[in-house]
Amino acid sequence: MSLNRKDLLGLEHLDKKDLQTVLDSVKPFKSLFTRSVKKAPTLIGKTVVTLFYEPSTRTRTSFEIAAKRLSADVVNIAVNASSVVKGESLIDTGKTLEAMKADYIIIRHSLAGAPDILARNLNASIINAGDGFHEHPTQGLLDLYTMYEKKKKIEGLKVLLVGDILHSRVAKSNIWALTKMGAQVAVAGPPTLMPSKIEELGVKVYYNLDEAIKEADVVNILRIQLERQQENLFPSVHEYVELYQLTKDRLAKAKPNVLIMHPGPMNRGIEISSEVADSPNAVINEQVTNGIAVRMAVLYLLKPNKARKYASSN
Amino acid sequence: MRLQIKNIRIVDPSQKKDSVGDIFAENGRIVSKLSSSADKVIDGKNKIAVPGLIDVHSHLREPGQEGKETIKTGTRAAAKGGITSVLCMPNTKPAIDNAPTVEFILLKAQKEGIVNVFPVGCVTKSSAGEELSEIGVLKKAGIVAVSDDGSPVSNSQIMRRALEYTKMFKLPVISHSEDKELSKSGVMNESKNSMILGLRGIPKQAEEVMVARDIMLAELTGGYLHIAHVSTAGSVELVRQAKKKGIKVTAETCPHYFTLTDDVVRVYDANTKMNPPLREIKDVEAVKVGLADGTIDCIATDHAPHTAEEKNKEFDLAPFGIIGFETLLSLVLNELVDKKVLSLSGAIEKMTHNPALIFNLEGRGTLKEGAIADITIIDPKYSYEFTKESILSKSKNSPFIGRKFQGGAAITIVNGKIVYTAIRD
C-alpha cells in the first residue's frame, strides 16, 4: 500500500481512496504500541527532520516518536521565527537539509504555503505539520481515525466543529477529510471567526452552539486564541465563554454517546469546561495516542524521492 | 533622420483612421512628406502601425531600488513591449516629492533611457499622507500627475485638498484606492480560494470604499481624479455612475485584471501576488465590460519589478507586484481584440489617445501630422512563448512566463528613432 505521492501538504489533495488507505494502515502500527518492543524496522537508515518555525511540543514530539518507532534517525530543528525574515530563505534551508540527505522533512510554519514551496523545490518528502491558517493534515487524519475507531464508520456521521474556524488549519483539514468520506460537517462560532465562503466547502454554518449541538455525533472543539480578542474578533473572553464554551449543560442537549474531541492544547474553562474535558464522552487523550500511529502510517505510505507529484496534485 | 514606413495598415484612434498607407517622420515629427529621400525605409507589409503606446502606470525603481530595475533596463523592456512613453510612480527612494528627484529621473532618462519617461509626483510629502507635497514646484520640474501610489491618501481632508489644489495645474490626482484597515495583513483576494489556502484576504470593498470616497471628493471639488488599477466589478460600476453624473473621473485597469482570476494563486506562487489582488471571474468580466463601454479609459501595466530572491519566498513575505511591460500588447491583442471585447482601434485608443488626453501629453498618442513621431509597429502574426530568458526587465516576476502569444511589437520608434526591432528567425 502507498499513497503514490512524495508529499503530504494537505488533505484537499487526497481523495476518498487515499483517505481509506490511511485509515486501513493505522491499526497495525497502533497494535505495536502494546508490545514491549514498540519498534518496526520500516524506516531503518532513513533520516527524518522536523523543521519547526513555530513552537509545538505536542506535534513535534508525536512525529519524533512516530519516526523513531519506525527506526528512522530523527533530527529536530527549531527555528526562531524572527530569523526567517533576516536570515536564510526557506528554500535554502530546505536545500541544506536535502544536501544532508534528509528523506523526510516535517515542517511547521506560521505562514500558509511554506510546505508547498519546499515540496516544489526538493526531492525529500515534505509533510505539512501545520502551516498558517491553511491545513494540518496529520491532525485531520488522526481526528478522522479516532472517529472511525470509535464510531466504526465515517459515512453519515454528523460532525460539529466549534470555535475559531477562521484561523484554524485543523478545521480545514477536518472538513476536507470528513466531507470526502461522506460525513456531514457543521461549524459553529461567531461570524467574525467564520471564514467567508466556508459554506462552499459543503458545511453548514451555525452561530448558535445550543442549536448546533443537538444533532451531532461528534463535537470537535477548537482552541480559542486569546489574542484574537485584541483584534476585535469577539468582545471579551467572558462573552465567548457564555456563548461557546462546551459545558455540562450544553452537553446534556447532545446525543448521549456524542464524542468530544479537542486537538489540544486545551484552554480549560474557556472553550471547554473541565467537567466535559474529563467526561467519559471525551477522547482527547486517545487522539494523542492515535496521532503517533497515524503519523507512522503517513511516513510509511509516502514515497520520498519519488518524481515530484506536486504540480499534478494541485 | 528621415523615416518612411511603407504600405502599412495605420490604426490611429485619434483620427479614427484605419487604412493602408505610408507614414513619414522627419526630425522626430510626423510629416505628410519627406523633404528629401528617406534615410530608412521600413516595409510595412502585413504589419500595423499605431501611435506609440503610453503606459500610465509603472515603477522604474530608480532612484533607490536599482537591484529591481533601472531607468536603463526598464525603458528597454518597455520598448520591447511596444511602449514609447511611461509614467513612473513616485514610490522611489527618495520619493518623487522634490524637484531634484524629478530632475534626476528626467536626466537619467535622457542619458540612459530609450523611451519617454514622465514622472508622477507624490500627493503628500514622502507619500506619508500628512502634508501636501510642493505640487507646483514638482509640476514645474516636469511631473504629469500626482499619486501616493502604493498607499492611498487615507485622510479624506488631505485628499480633498489635493483634488482642489491640483485644479490650477490641471494635474490629475491618481487614486490608489485602498482602505488600509480593510485590507490589513491581506495578501490575496478574499474569496473561497483565500479560505482554502489559509491566506488572509483583501475584500473587494477595500478598493471600492475608496473609489467611492474619491469620486465623492472629486464631485465636491471639481478636481481631476484618475482611478488606478481598477480590479473589481463594484469599482467599475462606481466609475460608470460617476461619469454619468458628469464627475471628472477617469480610470485604468491592467492586463492581469482582465486575464487572470485568483485561481492562479492556488500554488502559492508569489508571482501571482499583486495589489490590488487578482479577483474572481465576475470581476474579470466586469472589467472587460467596463473597457468595452468606455468606463475604463486606459490600460496600464502597473509594471512592478521585484527580484527573484524577494519573490521566491513564503507568499506572505513576498512583495506585491508583477512586471508588465513586455506582455502588455500581446495580452491586449489576445485577451481583448481576438476575443472581440474591443476592436483593435478601441484597444489601441486606451493605450495611446486616452492616456495622452488625460495626462496632457501634448503631441503624443496620435499619428497626426506634426505630432511627435512615437510609433509602434505591430506584427500580428508573430507567435511566441513568453520565456524567462527573453525578459529584458531586470526582474522576472511575471505570472505569464510560459504563456504562448500571437501578436506583439515588431518595431518601436521613439521621437523618430528606432529604439527596438524584434529579432525573428
TrEMBL record, chain A:
Keywords: Pyrimidine biosynthesis, Transferase. Its EC number is 2.1.3.2. GO terms for cellular component: cytosol. PROSITE patterns: CARBAMOYLTRANSFERASE. It catalyses: carbamoyl phosphate + L-aspartate = N-carbamoyl-L-aspartate + phosphate + H(+). L-aspartate binds at residues 86, 169, 223. It comes from the Bacteria. HAMAP family: Asp_carb_tr. Heterododecamer (2C3:3R2) of six catalytic PyrB chains organized as two trimers (C3), and six regulatory PyrI chains organized as three dimers (R2). This is Aspartate carbamoyltransferase. It comes from Endomicrobium proavitum.
UniProtKB/TrEMBL annotation, chain B:
Keywords: Hydrolase, Metal-binding, Pyrimidine biosynthesis, Zinc. Residues 47-233 form the Dihydroorotase catalytic domain. It catalyses: (S)-dihydroorotate + H2O = N-carbamoyl-L-aspartate + H(+). Residues 337-420 form the Amidohydrolase domain. Belongs to the metallo-dependent hydrolases superfamily. DHOase family. Class I DHOase subfamily. This is Dihydroorotase. Pathway: Pyrimidine metabolism; UMP biosynthesis via de novo pathway; (S)-dihydroorotate from bicarbonate: step 3/3. Transmembrane segments: none annotated. It holds the Pfam family DHOase. Substrate binds at residues 59-61, 91, 275, 306, 320-321. It is an enzyme of class 3 (hydrolase). The active site is at 302. NCBIfam families: pyrC_multi (TIGR00857). The lineage of its organism: Bacteria, Pseudomonadati, Elusimicrobiota, Endomicrobiia, Endomicrobiales. It comes from the Bacteria. Catalyzes the reversible cyclization of carbamoyl aspartate to dihydroorotate. One of its GO terms (biological process) is purine nucleobase catabolic process. One of its GO terms (cellular component) is cytoplasm. InterPro entries: Amidohydro_3, DHOase, DHOase/Allantoinase_Hydrolase, DHOase_cat, Dihydroorotase_CS, Metal-dep_hydrolase_composite, Metal_Hydrolase. Its cofactor is Zn(2+). Its EC number is 3.5.2.3. Binds 2 Zn(2+) ions per subunit.
